[in-house]
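This part of the workshop introduces the protein records we will be handling. The structure tokens are whole numbers drawn from a learned vocabulary of backbone shapes. The record below serves as our worked example for the rest of this section.

===
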Amino acid sequence: MIHLISWQNTLNITWGTQQSDCVKKRQKNITLYVQNRDSQKKSELN
């Protein structure tokens, strides 16, 4: 029984880590997208 619980905890931790990695990547992509968009606007103004 204890083994099952610890296995579930390990699974949750692994899954949680993967999720946060996905979120970080998405945030990074959004940041890059915004930066690209802003630099395009600036070049249009020039």
Q: What stands out?
A: DSSP finds one helix and no strands in the chain.
